[in-house]
Amino acid sequence: MATNHATLDNQNARDPNEGSRSLARRVAEYLLDAGAVRFAPEEPFTLASGLLAPVYCDNRLLLSSPAARRAVCDGFARVWREEGLAADMVTGTATAGIPHAAWLADRLDLPMAYARAQPKKHGRGQRIEGGSVAGRTTVVVEDAISTGGSVCAVVETLRAAGAEVQAALAIYSHGFAAARLAFEKARTPVYALTGLDALLQAAQARGALSDAAIRTILDWRADPASWSARRAGP
After folding, report:
1. Fewer CB within 10 A of the terminal residue: the chain, N end or C end?
2. pLDDT higher for 15 or 181?
């Protein structure tokens, strides 16, 4: 199965309710409006992967905006339709993917489950909640992708439980080469509604980033491991 790690912006997808503005740009602007994106080229954040980053994206802040939630659900439904996805279940990643998976499952009138990258540390120690996925075809919903490791772990969990994973959907992806390789290895196409390019364009249009800051961020994306190592010090 071929991997397609692309944003809708790169596919020139258009939102009919927003004229000529791409859905990727619209979602990026919702992220900025919600304060979900922080830029800190000089004082980088630490990602879940352990890498340092001049950009941090917390899509949980979109939950407070009905308009943003609808835009994300609309985008996921569009990908589902345009890519010909034919899954009979939607699976969210715990925890940030759960609400968006629930809204998408409701829109599509499909069953929904959620899965953890690691087993639950108490109770029955389950990694998948919401009923059996054995024999089902599912699409995984995540909020943001950096290296792709946590999503791919969920994909493998679902396959080990007997499910077929057709694709992964995400609100945002940094667009790392490492993530593309991870999803290729996992044999899972992945589609992100927006990405770093759309985010930088929206931020620059608002005067929120200098040219120097944008160059720093693009240097980071080109080689995040080396960029992180240089700033981590001895």
Report:
1. C
2. 181
